[in-house]
Amino acid sequence: MWRKFDQLEDESGFLPWAKVIVRFESLKARRTAARDKLWFSSDVIEIVSEDDFETDSDETMSLERGALDLCLENLEDSQRDLVLLPYRDHGAIVKLAEKNKKSVNSYYKKIGRIREKLSLCIEGKLRGRLTQ
Length: 132
Known about the structure:
It is built from six helices and no strands. The chain is mainly α. The protein has two domains: 5-50, no CATH class; 58-131, Orthogonal Bundle (Arc Repressor Mutant, subunit A), CATH 1.10.10. Helix 3 (58-74) packs across helix 6 (104-131) and helix 4 (77-88) packs across helix 6 (104-131).
């Protein structure tokens, strides 16, 4: 999906776009490993690809996006830049690690901690809105 990310026209269409990519990649993998008995049949992949996984309403997604924006604003600039870096530039973490002579893993651990902080913040904001 990263290789095709530039083909995404609108973030609101992410799920349908992602489902198409996953469907075709699954079918491609199925064709290359057709001899393995542990793979789903093409019929099962077709049924799953037609299923509608969007369970969140537009309002819920809007609330979640708003909470994310608020929580991102609460981060220090360096934390915000680091957590957004993998989404902005494929391979940027590797370049950053090489530049600063640190391990890639150390940056991903930092990003993981920041994401956990964001997750808790978002949950708190959403809980606060639901109780109001």
